[in-house]
Amino acid sequence: xxxxxxxxxxxxxxxxxxxxxxxxxxxxxxxxxxxxxxxxxxxxxxxxxxxxxxxxxxxxxxxxxxxxxxxxxxxxxxxxxxxxxxxxxxxxxxxxxxxxxxxxxxxxxxxxxxxxxxxxxxxxxxxxxxxxxxxxxxxxxxxxxxxxxxxxxxxxxxxxxxxxxxxxxxxxxxxxxxxxxxxxxxxxxxxxxxxxxxxxxxxxxxxxxxxxxx
Amino acid sequence: xxxxxxxxxxxxxxxxxxxxxxxxxxxxxxxxxxxxxxxxxxxxxxxxxxxxxxxxxxxxxxxxxxxxxxxxxxxxxxxxxxxxxxxxxxxxxxxxxxxxxxxxxxxxxxxxxxxxxxxxxxxxxxxxxxxxxxxxxxxxxxxxxxxxxxxxxxxxxxxxxxxxxxxxxxxxxxxxxxxxxxxxxxxxxxxxxxxxxxxxxxxxxxxxxxxxxx
DNA sequence: ACTATGAATTCTGAATACAAAAGACAGGAG
DNA sequence: CTCCTGTCTTTTGTATTCAGAATTCATAGT
Lengths: 214, 214
Prior knowledge:
The structure is a homodimer. Chain A is built from nine helices and two strands.
C-alpha cells in the first residue's frame, strides 16, 4: 500500500475537521496556535497553513492581530449554507448523465430505506447521510462543482455536533431521500431536483431550532 | 484615512490576481517561491500563505514536493466555472428582495446601454462587466453566497487575458444584460433568472473558441 | 472609587534557518 | 549505445527565531 505522502497541512486540516465533528471545539473560541501546534505535534507553520485553508472555506475566521477563531454558529449562517449546498447539489444533479442517474437510483433507494432501520449513534447516521449525497452527485462531470460542494459542506460540519439528538426525525429524512430516488428511477430529473431542494429546506427547518438563537 | 492594516498574504494575493488579469503569468508554469518572494519584496512565509489561499480557490494547483503552479486553462474547466457561477448568481438573484431588484433595475439597464458606446480597452470593459454583475447580486442577503461567488470568479480571472480581442461581440452581451434588467423592472424574477443563465451560457460559448484546445 | 496611562506579558505575523524530496547529471555496467 | 545508479544541485516543506501588535494588569492621578 502506498504510504501517506500528503502535506502536513492537509492532515492537520482533516484532524481539525474531525475534532469539529466531535464537538471538541466550542464555536467562537479563539485558537492558540502554539498550544494547538504542540498538541498536534507539529510546528506552527503547517498548522497556520491549515488554518488559512479552513478560513478560506469559512470554517474559521481571522482578524488582524487576533489570529484565528472558530466561526460562531448562527441560524442565519446555517440557513445560508444550506441554501448554497442545496443549490449546488441541485446544479450537480442537473448536470449529471440521466442514464447514470437511473443506474444508481436503486442503490440510492436501498440506502434510503436502510436509513431508519439501524439503531445507530449520531455520527454513523451522519456518515450514512453523507454517503447518500455523495453517491447522488457522483455522476456529475463538473469536477470543480464537486470540489466546491465538498468545501462548502466543510463549513456545515461545525453544526454537526449541535444536531445530535435522540429524537432525530429519521423517518422524514429517509422518506424524502426515497422520493428523490424514486423520481430518478422514473427519469424525471426536474422533479427529482425539486425534491432534493425540498429535502434540504425541510432538513434545515428541522434542525434550525436546535441552533442557539444568536 | 485608515492605513492599510491587512495581512501581507491578502495584499500578495491581490497583486498576484492583478498580474494574472494582465496575463503576466503563463498558465501551467511552475512558481519559484524564492524568486517570486524576492520580486515582491516579501519573505516566503506570507507568499506561501497567499499561494495556499489561491490553491483553495482553484487558481493554483499544488503537488507534493513540486510546489505550486498556475492551473492550466482548458475549455472543460472554463465551462465548469461558468456553469457554477451562472448557477450561483441565479441563486443569488432568486434570494434577493424583489423590491430591491426593481429599484436597481433602471441603473442596471443604464449600465448595460452604456456598454457598447464607449470605445475602451479590454480591461475597462471587464471592469464594467464585473460592476454590472456585482450590482445585480448586491441585493442578496446571503453573505456567504456573495463571498463564494467572488471566490469562484477569482478562478475565472485566469481566462480574462485570453479573452482580449478587438472583435468582442459587445452588443450581444449588452443586449442580454438589457433583457435581464427589463425583466427585473417588470418584476418577473423567474424569467430574469433564466435570462441571466442564458447570458452566461451564451457568453461562455462566445469565448470558448479562444481557449486553446487542451 | 474610578479612569487613564504605561509596563509586562502573551500571542500573532513575518523572516530566517534547516531538512528532505525532486530533478539533473555524470559515470559505470551490461 | 543504453540503462541504471549514485551524487550533486535546486526547490519545496517544516521548524525555529525574531519583531511587533494586542491584551492584561498594576499603578498613579483625579
